[in-house]
């Protein structure tokens, strides 16, 4: 598995609203907020209630650093919630090769928790841990999250995401909804921070090592060695011809090649081949997105190994910068490719992505992971079933809290009463 690619995908998700990140403390100095009082029905330790294990109990160690139950079981819950949407709630289901659905969730959780702890360990080792800029961005996103939750629950929060509300009563209700939201996922405020911390640490490492001011900053030679390419192309699609019965009688390749050859000839005899290429590309290329952009935009494609069809990648790599290819066939039809210099902003960013992917994959291969007895004794089905019951209890408590008080005044019928059901 390409763990670096997985980490990059998670980083783009921002705070954990529906996506997933995880980890434990890096030892970096961070502000410790005053804990929000627990709302009615929310246990102080959801993991202890659901799994019989205190939330701070280490379930694995990664190069000696413990990963607490609260974090690792978040990953189990995340997977179980996803599959439950498809009706897959029996965790004893055989997945093949003797693995049950529950053991699959647990193995995946161990892998994910390991990945994030590895990033944390190396961020601390390389002194690229949590910083003031991370803190400011996290607080801004957290405020936006609270506002969004309050709006969903009908509590009434500021719409700009900068502040939950100046009203103390509304602010308290907003905080309560936030804590319920976390508890529903089996998380505390502290673990939610650690979950999201890792995306920032990953970016700190990426910039500190491979950014334009990093210790291994990109240049033309390094970008080329990483396999980063930049190109534009004229795509002439092969349009199959079918008979009345729908059977393909002509794959359309010959017709596409004929048109591509004519365009190529026109480019080669032009006084300025690159300018003519651009003109013919805009007039003829069939690589056009829904917004009408040719090649995805004016700058063309900047890509790394394996990101494009093989024929396109190999065809581009075979050219010198500024060289134009003869028509090259792929399953799509024929491409006339213009290779451009990849030493630009997009190429530098792609270089950083590729090098971080490689480094994280290496770290994962080298990591020493040890499971604890507490993990080996965990009953995943019982944990998830009990968590489901706790969720129902928390939801009922929230609904009861928001129910209108008894009154002798007449009540207008047909007016819905908003509830504060936690978001899952």
Question: What would you say this structure looks like, in words?
Answer:
By secondary structure, this protein is α+β, with helices and mostly antiparallel strands. The chain has 2 domains: 259 residues, no CATH class; 113 residues, Chitinase A, domain 3. It is 49% helix and 9% strand. It contains 14 helices and 9 strands. The strands form 3 sheets. It has a 4-stranded antiparallel beta sheet, with helices on both faces. A 3-stranded antiparallel beta sheet has the order 2-1-9. Strands 4-5 form a two-stranded antiparallel sheet. Helix 1 packs across helix 12, helix 5 crosses helix 6 and helix 9 packs antiparallel against helix 10. Keywords: Isomerase, Rotamase, Signal. This is PPIC-type PPIASE domain-containing protein.
